[in-house]
Amino acid sequence: MSLPITNGLYSISIEMRDGVRGRATGVIVLRDGVILGGDSYFYYTGSYTCDGGKWRGDLITYQHTPAVGLNLVFGGRDVSCGFSGTYGEGAAEVFGTALVGKTSVSFRAALAVMVED
Q: What is the 3-state secondary structure (H, E, C) of the chain?
């Protein structure tokens, strides 16, 4: 039997890909298939499944704070994202796609467990 991804609080570092400039760092909680998290401008809610070191899921990103003077990739929109990736002891990685209006933006995110549940 394979182990599920560790429940806990993770740091997350997100990098946009395919020529789109954008980065974010924040925290995210993974607990029994539920995702909750956020950063300086956005919060995230979603769900995931995992098995055998692989996981996939979806989430929606919502802006909670105006970004005066900044041009954020997701700025002013609720953005749906889908992802898949791998996980191991204390860390995970995902590659995904965010639908920003009518444009698809790919991203990579690295997660590192900070506190296990």
A: CCCCCCCEEEEEEEEECCCCCCEEEEEEEEECCEEEEECCCEEEEEEEEEECCEEEEEEEEEECCCCCCCCCCCCCCCEEEEEEEEEECCEEEEEEEEEECCEEEEEEEEEEEEEEC
Render pLDDT for 76-90 as a digit per residue (tens, 0 to 9).
778 899 999 999 989
Domain CATH number, residue 81: 2.40.128.380
Does the pTM exceed 0.85?
A: yes
* Distance linking the first and last C-alpha atoms of the chain: 21
* 37: containing domain: 8-116
